[in-house]
């Protein structure tokens, strides 16, 4: 496929984005998040997590240390295990040209559950990767005396990509096999002495892995309920330099590869090498014609029937675009590409070698297939018994012709702005009896976007500023047991609740939020978490996720006007804040709409300011919001103010009241306006440059 075809191809699958808003309905700043933070003095790189719901701890691997944190409150440290590198080893590392302070340290990169009692942990250990077993008991983390070489399990270089997973006593890992960072491989090494499987690695060839960047690994229990005697499989997601495009520059593509758990390697050919390694291109067509998007992170949403499990992946563009996307893939769709699709083959007479569709005869048993009942019926009990023809074919043709396409043909979500970095997904049962996949997406500036795709309509329920400083979210984990989300970055680990239904103060707000975790309890008159209710409860609950139908909500009580005395010459601040970023705010003066381009007024996110008010400005001001959801307008009066002319001399009570309500007194000279905010409390007036007034919302929260 050449570039033009590639662009057309991506363009043709342009998903219907019309009608979807990718503006988060609400934005929650950090100070409004009830979040729990863990950070230790002098410790960085809080990026390797292992959730141990069975032990009630989050095991956290950082630089030179491992911690066990209380899952309900990660600021509570249950245990710590310092694991740093001896000074002389660090010096040695720096002699080899590596940075003493940063690279020549022990970055924990692998943290896996080995068996019921033990965990397996690996660190970069000053460019000399090392692993060991670790236990957590009696409130202590203990590292086994015996150390294993970590080559192939953990990268040498802390900045290099890697991924790993433990499955039935073996560790599957992707990492470099040498100090230089070349020879990147997918390896399997036994974790327990009980495992009888040989150590395997990928065949060394550019057609196997071509400058890969490893992203994620997961296992799917495909042997369960399989009629064909299938095998469990390990899926691996990565990006690499493409071979299949006719493109002058280096072009990256996203890939999914898979191997079978019972692979034992070949007998003579492909001995100690995977015989089931197959890979395919992973497509996530963006809304605009572009170069292929690159996979950054993957989450497996597991279903009790593995056939219904779904991989969710976040993608970012290569080249200059600020669109990130989430695509979802069915496990069976991926499996079909490997088990039924055609293969690609190198086209020999070109230089550099290009890859095209293979049209020749395919050996039997099918190259790369797991050993199943049909193979066993042929007398092939394991991969060791595979004929050379099959092995040679899979060695030379690991790439499938067809690409894996996302569910519904396009992304679940696309959004402009800071790039997506990580994703986790929860499957939530709603009151309509249906399950919805709620995506939590971490971004490069420390936010989490909580989003749902309702039958093709992309809805971002909220964005929450999770990290205290704008830095990338490097790790995300979700626990249904605690109902918490855990995030890691280079400087801290944080925790937040999956839902905060209490943020929605009215029935309308609660219903329009369309949060599957929340419903309006009409009896108690509050927005409540659906999961906290027992199923027998006969409370009157209102939720309308797909339709956003708020007609069941009791009509809103009319808003009582608030009266103030107007002092001529003052700047008057009237507060009004919309519940939603999607709502439009309208101001009325004595029933007439105020014009946004009128320089007499300043319209901003927190309300309206009447600049240098005169007696003619006395009257009634009302603030209304209009939120459009699914083609329906939801109007609401938020505030009504009655301004009465005064004589300039306020009574003590009026002054108090005006002050309390943020009415501005006094004047500042020149370009400065004297502002007085109730947020700032009594005795904190300040002068603000008129030119800076568009950022009044910021001024409100800062010190005078
Ligand atoms: C570790 O964290 C520090 C501090 O934020 C950062 O500068 C550095 O790049 C991180 N190192 C790695 C290997 O990610
Ligand atoms: C608002 O004022 C501008 C300029 O003064 C004018 O062009 C516009 O038509 C006005 N809009 C409304 C809705 O009155």
TrEMBL record:
This is Uncharacterized protein. The lineage of its organism: Eukaryota, Metazoa, Chordata, Craniata, Vertebrata. Its main location: membrane. SMART domains: IG (SM00409), IGc2 (SM00408), PSI (SM00423), Sema (SM00630). It is found in: Membrane. Keywords: Disulfide bond, Glycoprotein, Immunoglobulin domain, Membrane, Signal. The keyword rRNA processing does not apply. Belongs to the semaphorin family. GO terms for biological process: axon guidance; negative regulation of transcription by RNA polymerase II; neural crest cell migration; ossification involved in bone maturation; positive regulation of cell migration; semaphorin-plexin signaling pathway. InterPro entries: Ig-like_dom, Ig-like_dom_sf, Ig-like_fold, Ig_sub, Ig_sub2, Immunoglobulin_dom, Plexin_repeat, PSI. Gene3D superfamilies: Immunoglobulins, ligand-binding face of the semaphorins, domain 2, YVTN repeat-like/Quinoprotein amine dehydrogenase. GO terms for molecular function: chemorepellent activity; semaphorin receptor binding. Residues 1-18 form the signal peptide. PANTHER family: SEMAPHORIN, SEMAPHORIN 4D ISOFORM X1-RELATED. Residues 25-498 form the Sema domain. Pfam families: ig (PF00047), PSI (PF01437), Sema (PF01403). GO terms for cellular component: extracellular space; plasma membrane. Residues 554-639 form the Ig-like domain.
